[in-house]
Design brief:
Number of helices: 13
Mean pLDDT: 93
Helix content: 55-70%
Length: 223
């Protein structure tokens, strides 16, 4: 496939030789959306700088110009089970940035695929899945209950080590902090946080302490 040009240089070539970073590609794509197919195709290129550079471009575009990326929803969701974990994580985070403008049917179809990896086995995949699913719940609060209940399952998740589980629990507390204002029944989350006061990982214990200090006075939000 013939690459599009940016100031006389091919996108892939420029990313590969380091003459341009993802941040430098973004304004060019915003100005010329016809370059987007080249960025998506770049995800399948063998050179790491090219495929990861293109993934970074898409993630940055989803932050600054989500409406430009939304029509390519299916191309992003197709990466959620990608064998390359970095591309998988990038797809999760890119989709999360589209949460405020994504339609309810799209999100409802996507959510089971996002929630699946939360229970393991890969720690970073679980953390990014929680982050992405939480973004969708914040954008569409009716999903907060479902997402929070899935996040609570991390205690029984099957991760590579017990310490990985403790790290994931720390991430779970961060995401649950964002969801708490959206939950009518907060007690299951509070109980989860209280159990983490005995967590063997110091940073996770501290997050549990901070979480409870912030939320322990609230049991139910107004109906």
């Amino acid at each position: 496939m013939k690459a599009h040009l940016i100031d006389g240089s091919q996108i892939w070539t420029s990313l590969a030789d380091g003459s341009v970073r993802a941040e430098g590609v973004v304004p060019q794509v915003v100005g010329r959306p016809a370059l987007l197919p080249e960025i998506f195709t770049g995800l399948d290129q063998p050179k790491a700088r090219v495929k990861f550079g293109c993934a970074k471009v898409l993630q940055l575009l989803s932050e600054s110009s989500p409406k430009l990326i939304l029509p390519h929803w299916e191309q992003l969701t197709a990466r959620l089970e990608h064998e390359n974990k970095i591309l998988q994580w990038s797809a999760m985070l890119t989709l999360a940035n589209l949460a405020p403008i994504a339609s309810v049917p799209k999100v409802e179809a996507l959510l089971p695929r996002l929630l699946g990896p939360i229970r393991g086995p890969v720690m970073i995949t679980a953390a990014n899945a929680m982050r992405s699913a939480t973004a969708f719940a914040v954008a569409q609060p009716l999903l907060a209950y479902e997402v929070s209940r899935k996040i609570l399952e991390v205690e029984k998740g099957d991760y590579q080590t017990a310490e990985c589980r403790n790290v994931v629990i720390g991430h779970a507390l961060q995401m649950l902090d964002r969801l708490m204002p959206l939950l009518k029944d907060k007690e299951p989350v509070l109980k989860f946080a209280r159990r983490q006061l005995q967590n063997s990982r110091p940073s996770t214990r501290k997050r549990a302490e901070a979480f409870l200090k912030k939320h322990n006075s609230a049991k139910r939000s107004p109906s």
